[in-house]
What does this fold into?
Amino acid sequence: MSTDRDERMKQLKKIEIYPWAERKNPRPRGYITPGGKHWLAAHPRGMEYWERLADVVNREPVFERDRFFMAMLKELGIEKGKPFQPTERQQKILTDAALVGESMAKANNFAKRLKTGKYVKGSHWYFATVAFPDQKAENYDQLDERAAWFYEAVTNNAAMHGQRTGKGQVYMASNKDKGGDWLDGGRNYVLHVPPDAPAETFWSITLYDVATRCLLQNEQKIADRSSRMDLIKNADGSVDIYMGPDAPKGKQKNWIPTVPGKAWFPYFRLYSPKKAFMDRSWILPDIEKNR
It folds into this structure.
């Protein structure tokens, strides 16, 4: 019997990638399989962070917007075309700096005070995509916005800013429940999604690990629920999504398991937002403790 992986590989082989200039006589490049090499989307910590950064600086072009950052890195011994060879004293300083820097990034990201992130007054939901695609606002470049978004994500484009354009996707995130407490992997929660969610295509909620910003890993291998699934609906068409370590009796279809000891955060996405979202006549409530 064909496995799920066999089917994915079969579909992958149908994909042909080649330069646009070769469209009349294409020479597909194929793809690379990683083999047994370990790969993680989250950045490394400690000295490995600086070593990886030095490697990237040497391999990638420098964008105009990053030239001042290159000047800062130069003083740390990270300079294009030169080996990164910190002394023992510098290694200690840089190891401590990586810890402090990530703490600052977490505070800037998970306790946002950015105007571009505001959803509605009093809500713990906020827009995750706070940096514009070009990272430019009137009279300044979006330094904090850029640092916040790219601490948890790896790409940005106009289609991810539906809250401003009314098109594409809307990315909303939250780190606290209705009572203002940080979301805890050891507690059970419920999110009430009101009827007629304003998404032309579909809506979804996905949970991520705060430590890695990658999909939340659990034994059930379930990290999301969406309106495309066979969810249990309430009489008025609303949906209750349950998140926590304990499966809700009779509501497993609407459950996303969390892991005690692992902090998590959700993205609530609306694909092709409707007018009711744009004018805020439809409001997503906060996540609440359940039992």
Summary: The chain has a mean pLDDT of 93. The helical segments are 4-12, 47-59, 67-74, 88-110, 143-152, 162-165, 275-278. The chain has two domains: 4-108, 116-289.
